[in-house]
Design brief:
The chain is α/β, with parallel strands linked by helices and 638 residues long. Helices cover 28% and strands 25% of the residues. The strands form eight sheets. Strands 15-14-16-17-24-23-22-19-20 form a nine-stranded mixed beta sheet. It starts with 13 loop residues before the first strand and ends with a strand.
Length: 638
């Protein structure tokens, strides 16, 4: 499915890439060579791509100049020396020549069966700001003159092409939060203005955010919640080099291979909107060879599909190492990113995209049903929400369960298990939400929380531990976990130490001095697990924590907690580098997706509950998984 409902239909997944022409990169609209574009799109379509994201570069499509009079006062907007035309395009400051070139581009895409997602305000691209000459020097996110002309461009462009079937979505632009500075209120006003301009001209297509580096909570200018309020589809651009906590391990290992999935689920869950990976890549051969890049992509395709990511678009179609203009002259990262090399030969990643599309189209179901989730991970104020949530996501995958994200300000979702990783500060959750969460636990849910210096009200009542003193640890200490046979010692790094005395809690682990550091306590009909150190933050900063063979099995803490909670799942596994999702087709049949997040062929350790059996194999073998690959199979009740 690649019509205008593709991104918003659950269970659908489409593959594509971002596009700049092979000969010119960002200069393609000025240096117009339709024969090159035809060749590019032909190769991409024949390889199996379904969609390309395309960018009408702002100054090329709205090449307005501001002429000034005495003392520099603004006098008139023109196309160079030529007055703006009296027609609709002229009054919008839009180049008729560029528009006709875009129309030709659509015709070429149609000829090759490719659909288009259009990033409308392309003022930021690959590390360079591109704005019309009349608007240079302005903060284009907040200056009213700049916003006025953006609205005119967007409104005209969308009206002009709204009847084209090849266009399936309109994007606000490309990473427009990089075009200037804005407060949260200014960012909201800008995004609302552009989104409303799109919808006023075409209410039939989804509006795509196009942003990256959004905040889960209210601390940042650009937030997941605001973008979800204003657009229909959220987007992630999960490059490991640019994302905190992601450039620590080899590209083809578990932490790196779960980056895109964790970030996409964070945006989608907190925002309550569909979310797609709008840009994806390795950032070149220095980060991962062609073979490793293909393995990395394959893992991510299966992982995103299984975890309700709606699409993956590679960055980008062509190499740009031969181009002399900025930004390619400036930044080495921008030169070797293509699916196609400069000689137009295909890299292995292009074949992976096509193979994955063919695989999922051959499945005996039209759409993959939603995965079963067992928990809700609540991210809180004052913490590094991304690093804590990311590490928790990996630990849960290793432990064999899945969760949804939410932010602490949102109404508490119903779940049998709640995770509060890395609590810190004094305002980490509003009182009303804390009481709402405790009511869920009292009614029978389980709560896990890890401590990172937070002030926790009703501490003894909730944890069964009485706080004695609070201080900063002078150095790392060992903790002995009686509850986890085979893993007796975990190292606790420096940080805030809470000395506690058990009143009602069962102690599961102690520090060297006997201080309880992991405990469980009944709370009404539920229970509360308290971990006295910030496990998630520690792992998020620790290279190799999720891939080195000799690191402690941190995930067993999560497994211990999850084992005490009833689960809907019927498939388990023992290998921590394998993630398993379950997708009920009906009461008697489920799709199982088992992903190997490691660069080695592994035994999965998959076990199926009594009363269920494998019905058919759709891809791979569940018992043994190839490197960075997956098994997809159906199970049915006996």
């Amino acid at each position: 499915m690649t019509d205008r409902t593709a991104f918003v239909t659950p269970g659908r997944f489409i593959v594509g890439c971002n596009y700049w022409a092979a000969h010119a990169g960002t200069a393609m609209w000025r240096d117009w060579r339709p024969e090159v574009i035809d060749r590019d799109l032909k190769v991409l379509a024949e390889a199996g791509l379904q969609i390309i994201r395309v960018f009408p570069l702002w100054p090329d499509f709205q090449p307005i100049h501001l002429l000034r009079s005495c003392q520099g006062h603004p006098a008139e907007y023109r196309f160079g020396e030529q007055p703006l035309g009296d027609d609709e395009a002229g009054q919008a400051g839009v180049s008729a020549e560029a528009i006709e070139r875009f129309a030709e581009f659509i015709a070429i895409a149609e000829r090759h069966g490719l659909k288009l997602s259009v990033g409308l305000v392309t003022g930021w691209m690959s590390g360079r700001l591109f704005v019309p000459p009349a608007l240079e020097g302005l903060d284009v996110l907040t200056d009213p003159r700049a916003i006025l002309w953006q609205v005119r461009l967007v409104r005209y462009f969308v009206r002009r092409f709204r009847d084209e079937r090849e266009v399936i979505a309109w994007g606000l632009g490309n990473e427009c939060n990089c075009m200037g500075t804005a407060t949260r209120e200014q960012a909201w006003v800008w995004a609302a203005t552009i989104a409303d301009a799109i919808r006023s001209a075409d209410p039939s297509r989804p509006v795509i955010s196009g942003m990256h580096s959004l905040f889960a909570g209210p601390e940042g200018s650009w937030t997941i919640g605001d973008q979800a309020e204003l657009t229909d589809v959220l987007t992630t651009h999960p490059y490991p080099l640019f994302t905190p906590g992601c450039d620590l391990d080899p590209l083809n290992t578990m932490r790196s291979c779960l980056h895109a999935t964790a970030e996409t689920r964070l945006y989608g869950d907190v925002g309550g909107r569909p979310c797609l990976v709008e840009e994806f890549g390795t950032l070149g051969p220095n980060v991962g060879s062609d073979a490793v890049a293909a393995d990395y992509l394959r893992t991510n395709l299966f992982s995103l599909w299984a975890n309700d990511g709606r699409a993956l678009l590679w960055w980008c179609a062509n190499e740009q190492s031969h181009l002399e203009a900025a930004p390619y002259d400036w930044d080495s990262i921008e030169r070797e990113l293509g699916l196609l090399r400069c000689d137009h030969s295909a890299k292995p990643v292009l074949g992976e995209l096509g193979r994955f599309r063919r695989l999922i189209e051959a499945m005996p179901f039209e759409a993959l049903p939603p995965r079963l989730t067992d928990a809700v991970c609540i991210l809180t104020r004052g913490q590094d929400t991304w690093r804590n949530g990311y590490a928790a996501f990996i630990l849960a995958k290793q432990a064999g369960f899945d969760f949804e994200f939410q932010f602490a300000d949102q109404p508490i979702r119903e779940a049998p298990l709640y995770l509060l990783p890395g609590l810190c500060g004094q305002q980490w959750m509003r009182r009303r939400r804390w009481l709402e969460l405790l009511a869920r636990v009292e009614a029978g849910a389980t709560l896990y929380m890890s401590y990172d210096s937070a002030i926790i009200s009703s501490f003894e009542e909730v944890t069964g531990l009485e706080s004695q003193t609070r201080c900063v640890r002078p150095g790392a200490v060992k903790a002995t976990f009686d509850a986890l046979p085979g893993e007796p010692n975990f190292e606790i790094p420096t940080g805030v130490k809470l000395t506690v005395k058990p009143t009602r809690a069962q102690v599961l682990a102690r520090e060297d001095d006997g201080n309880p550091v992991f405990a469980v306590c009944a709370y009404g009909n539920g229970k509360v697990y308290f971990l006295g150190w910030p496990l998630e933050r520690q792992l998020a900063h620790q290279p190799g924590a999720f891939c080195e063979p000799d690191v402690p099995a941190w995930w067993r803490i999560y497994r211990h907690v999850a084992d005490s909670v009833p689960s809907q799942r019927v498939v388990g596994k023992t290998n921590p580098f394998v993630g398993v999702t379950e997708h009920p087709l009906d009461q008697k049949t489920r799709v199982i997706v088992a992903v190997n997040y490691s660069p080695d062929e592994v035994e999965s350790g998959i076990a199926i509950s009594d009363g269920w059996q494998v019905k058919s194999l759709l891809h791979g073998k569940p018992e043994r998984l190839d490197r960075n690959d997956a098994a997809v199979f159906l199970i049915a009740r006996r």
